[in-house]
Amino acid sequence: MYCLYNAHGVTVDQASILARTYCIKILLILFSITATTPLLADEVISSGWIVPANTPFQTTKPLLEQVVATDSKTDLSHVRIKAEQGYWFIIDLDKQSQSKIEVIYADNSHLAQLDFYTLDENFNPLVEVNNDAYRYVNKVLPHALLPEDEARWAVIYARHSEDDRLSIGLATGNEFANLINKKLRNFFLITGLLLLCLAVVGTVYGLSHQAKSLYLLAYLMCVLSEFLIAKGVLNYFNIEFASLWYTKLQFSFQVLALGVINFYFIHYLQSQNLLNARQDKLTVYISLFCFAAILSCFMKQSVHLTVVILCLGFMLVMLSYLFFYWLSNTKKVVQFKFVLAWFAVILQTLCWQATLVAGAQIQQFNDVLLVVNVIAAVMALLIHERKCVKQYSYSLTHDDDTKLPNKQLLIKRLDSEVKLAIEHSLLLFRPAVLINARANFGYEHVNEQIKLTMGKLAQQLASMNVLCVEANHQHSRCIARLDDSTYGVVIIGKLELSQIEQFVCVINSVFAEGLTHKRIHLIDKVEIGVANYPLHASTSLQLVQRGLQALAVKPLHGERWHMFNIENVTLSQRRIAIASALKEAIECDQLSLFFQPQIYLNTGKVHGAEALLRWEHPQLGNVPPDLFIPIAESSGIISDLTEWVITQALQYQKKMIVLLPEHIVSINISAKDLLRKDLPVLFITLLNEHQLNSANVMLELTESATLFEGVDIKNALNDYRLIGVKIAIDDFGTGYSSLAYLSKMGFDEIKIDKQFVMNIEYSKNDQTICRATCDIAKSLGSYVVAEGIEDSQSMAKLQSYGCEVGQGYFFSRPLPFDDYMQWLEENLETTTVFVNDLKKVVDLIGKNNY
């Protein structure tokens, strides 16, 4: 079920629970009223004579006079009439024991013809008293008012198109009024009860959309329709031929109700795994039978009874099957309830058919059984839904895999401690072994193992000062599961490091055994973070957040756990702010490229420049690349950042080659982007767009990046070489690359890291490393670029080692593009003058020698 909120802030689940609770109370009240109230009043029955004849009154009058002369009276409280046969019923009003008889009535409003006559002593018709107050009641209970002190004989003529029944009674005015009132009261009570049940089941179906609720809804609609037809509601609508179709319609809804409830039971059997796939064919059989039963509604009543007997036979067969299945089934309680419910439906169907035979004599029992069955069905549905809601509520507060309390229940429990202002500490732990175990062993096995492990840990913690997160009559739990691999324990009392150490020792000792599956044993460390209330947090949510922040910090120097530290949070928040602002910085051009010149050490000419990324944020200030580049890699923004750097660098390169055609621009590439298949395509597009020589573009890769998945890196480098782009290995000497690795990759340029250059004049080790790097580069056919040259002595030593190119503050700091273009122009003029003067000196020396 979906959990939505209404305008008052109450969830739909909560609203449905309240609605079902009130509905159950209302149903119980109505049931108690119905059970304690007689459904029918005590009727005044009569006896008289019956004359079968289809002739009018004037023709039948002599025959009636002859019949009353005999003593062969018949009880008229229950009379069967045959189809298309007219009957005359004669009642001697003077022989009735009741005094002041005022009304004669016939308890059947569905007959095709029903006429009342009142006669005097000589069998002459008397004028009936017309009472407008009873004209609507006459459609439900046909009757006639007897003239005062004049009527001696009461005659009723009845005829119907099918076999039916008739009950004739006499009553005083007050008795008849009470009879009508009780009938109407019971009619509206049962109708209201059925409508309320329909509303309840409809609400359940609207919330759950389950087939069982739909079947029960259809069943209640059929029951309500049959009940209304049986009580003569169709007579109020003046429907033509209503009396002719009364029995057929009533029987149709009985059969439909029977078929729908069969579908409901089949669905229930399937949901309880009591029917297999082959037994699903029962649904088809029931459908065919219901169709045949509906067609039988157009047949004679004898056929109706035959069809119902066949249907009941089928249901009894299913009942027998369930009974024997119940004997061998473990779910005997569920099975017994189902058998009992099906038996109640069979009994209801038998009562429906019995009313066609016995009439009013069994109608009272039928109505009581109808009320009981409907209430029982709706109550069963509500109880089942209540159980589902409880299971759903349980799943909201417990983990499905381990059945431990989840984060929601933990926070609720912490809220109660915060309200009482009780000091406590939240200890969160994450067994790192779980990730590898699930990948190797599977979730099912690991969940079983983690249950056992948590059970052992709970036993160890039971004697310690821990908060019970969940306590009920079955068990109590002190461990909660926050997410897939994070668990928590609440320690009651003031924060004491010795106590925390004790808990850490217990947790580590339990998980030291690791997880085993098929002789594979995994053991790993447990990450632990601790936060305290009220020292670190003022609310339960904040305490959980602080605990997760402490858990995220990796312990250093052999620490087994980490306490929450506000400094780490500040740094983490700054990283988050940088990550969120970096995307905006790319889109809003807050980034810029600086260029640091690279100079040929022998000639002083400009070799090119390295493009360095800079970010000046309006609020964060100057953010160094060493800080935001790792954040960009971890947050997935590095691809956009790399594309921006490449695009800007090549646009600037187009302008720089105007001053220096052989100018080489060096661009740094992240290891995350090196294997991207679309990056070479971007280079090809931009090189063609700006008409640049690919040989004047250098890609600088850090040594750690080139060691990342070596085989794929080599293939990626080959893609760039096909374009014509040159490859350089940056920060050489800081990683772990071997000579064989350098030979296999075939770099065009090797850059010596500045940490080996800045102290080269004083450090023998740095001198050895730089000299060896230059020798290695020459042997591999690469040239060397030295970073971090800050004085002439360093430059002289590197030049003596055979280093071709250098960069550093001795030549120039990194410059913005416009400043670099100005520097480049000035440097070219200085270099041209120096070269011209050098030529003149060479020429002069040549002439003197000549």
Automatic annotation (TrEMBL):
Coiled coil: none
Keywords: Membrane, Transmembrane, Transmembrane helix
TM annotation in the entry: 187-207, 214-237, 249-270, 282-301, 307-327, 339-362
InterPro entries according to UniProt: Cyclic-di-GMP_PDE-like, EAL_dom, EAL_sf, Rev_trsase/Diguanyl_cyclase
Residues of the EAL domain: 575-828
Name the UniProt record assigns to this protein: EAL domain-containing protein
Organism annotation: Pseudoalteromonas neustonica
Lineage: Bacteria, Pseudomonadati, Pseudomonadota, Gammaproteobacteria, Alteromonadales
